[in-house]
Predict the structure.
Amino acid sequence: MDRNTFLNQHWTSYPAMPADAKAAGRIYQIVREAGELEITLIRDGKEQIVSFEKAPPQSEFLIEGDIVAAVSATELILLAPNKAALPNRTYNKDILEKWNRYVEEVRHFFRRKDFVEVKTPSLVVCPGTEPSLDVFLTELKVGSRKEKLYLPTSPELHLKKALALGAEKIFEIAPCFRNGEVTERHQPEFNMLEWYRAYDNLGTIKQDVIDLVQHLVKVLKFPAPRKILSYSVAELFKIHCGFDFTPETTKEELKALAQKLNVDVHSAESIDDFFFLIFMEKIESQLHGEDLIFVEKYPPYQAALARLTPDGWGDRFEAYWQGLELCNAFHELNDPQIQRQRSEEDLEKKQQSHKEMIALDPEFFQCLDAGLPPSGGVALGVERLFMALHGIRNISDISVFPK
């Protein structure tokens, strides 16, 4: 009798887990010798060796990968046969336990500071208008009603609606979705931590970031950042490019700088493109190591949803640690007229880049028209900070099911 005959004619298919089983798991190794049987089982990431002085009946048909239960010294039950190779994925219990503890500590940090956790929707009218991002589109169907909806690239718009509705200190750990992004640091689905302080500014948010990192390294027992440093974009361009950057710096000046620095900008079209390519190659690549580094005061066309400072810079910062960009923070723009103008400019940039065209969220602008208090807010990559803490270089190593 061969294995197929045994499975098809003699095996009691897919039995329930026996209550009196002494051991169970997936067979990692089988050793048969002189009528004896020794099997190594894998269960919950741990190995267990089960020995039989006399090989149980029908054990000759077992192979590595089968899931079995040892009931007694003479009985071995096949629970589920190995009929195909498992997907090329890894269940890493140790990483998942560390991830769960980490997320718990993040939530504890904000609850201790009297923040309220908010849940925003994962089907939205407007996913976010950032010109460089590709989005996921779906459709709501209710009877004859059909509506285009998107998976959010960020929970930002809805959290700001909550501020207008009366929320003051809020946070969310939200699943976010960005199409076309699969690298060592990007997955199309990831977790974003966003928090906002109404009636406050960017200085408090910056201190929150510092406090959060210091809390996590203390309770999770990791080395703290060696130093906490802050630079403006203009200072970094002066240090690394020898260039005097101002809010009025033009596209032509950046193009000339790129040529001088031998930065490949053949794909660049807009001033944003030239800024991004120079910044990525000559500056961001230097923001590595053990220091927690804040980059502040961006050019006005990089202000996104941030206010402008009195001297014309976008009042926002990004933070870097261990070579990873961790977060992006804004002194939030609450002028509805300027916000409409910037959103429309973003849509024009999307169109020029042949991105998916989206609609704006009328309820968001209704909230702005009704009045959004001066606020500070930040979006932090939850996986990114975990990677920085644990020295993980590939975001796929955190997930059981990466794309």
Observations:
- The longest strand covers residues 23-33.
- Residues 93-112 form the longest helix (20 residues).
- The chain is about 30% helix and 25% strand.
